[in-house]
Amino acid sequence: MAQIWCVIVVIMISSSLINAQPSPGYYPSSQVATNSFYQNFRTLWGAQHQNVQGDTLTLWLDRSSGSGFKSLKQYRSGYFSAAIKLQPGYTAGVITSFYLSNQEDFPGYHDEIDIEFLGTTPGKPYTLQTNIYNRGSGDGRLIGREMRFHLWFDPTQDFHNYAVFWSPDQILFFVDDVPIRRYPRKNDATFPNRPMWAYGSIWDASSWATEDGKYKADYNYSPFVGSYKNFKVSGCDLGGSGYGSCLPRVSPYGSGVLSSQQVSAMQWAQGNYMVYNYCQDSRRDHTLTPEC
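^ thats the sequence. predicted structure below, dont judge the formating
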């Protein structure tokens, strides 16, 4: 009996160690000042479904509309972060997002860097999708570069920080300062390098968001709510000088190479929580994603 309990204890300890977030050793968010919503952003659409109280912005979606916001400036590179808290319960079909894009400038042929939470059904975890578009795909179709994760915490219980770092050399995605994905620049054909705006939104994507569209938005559960605070924006805006010199440090080595501890933390996140990688999808035509 004692041996059985020892095995159970070992299993429980092993499980808790897997779920324990490792220290990345360096915290990029500490290098950037926190701003209020209005210091960096403005309402873009759905103003009647948007509210700011204190330091928290709330967006909601119902049968009539969702809501979105947009940065005051356009950027050529930078660090973009927000603390986000998601709604529990039935949220299938609903996207809560924080992203960079120039779709308004180049409709149908735009660049985009996404942090998107794909709505879910009760008892199933949220999926965090990271995605990158570069000039559509060059052939009239949008070719996504999706990498998806289930998180090591419940994103409905508290605010957590989600960030994109976009430099001339790479794109990094962070969750609570843990790097979860690195997308290096290999050539101009696969890397977004045109100026982009920062956005956030909540909207109905029932056709694809939850289990490839199996579950749709059910407005009996609305309003669907997303909350944002602790906005951090630091980078090279379109009107400024320089291209990389205005970027914050995201590692002990500056804005370039990740430390070995950061790489280990990223390997932990991908090894334990990544649930989809476009480069590993045999259904995809990888001639369209040569970086794979």
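The CA atoms of residues 215 and 223 lie 17 Å apart.
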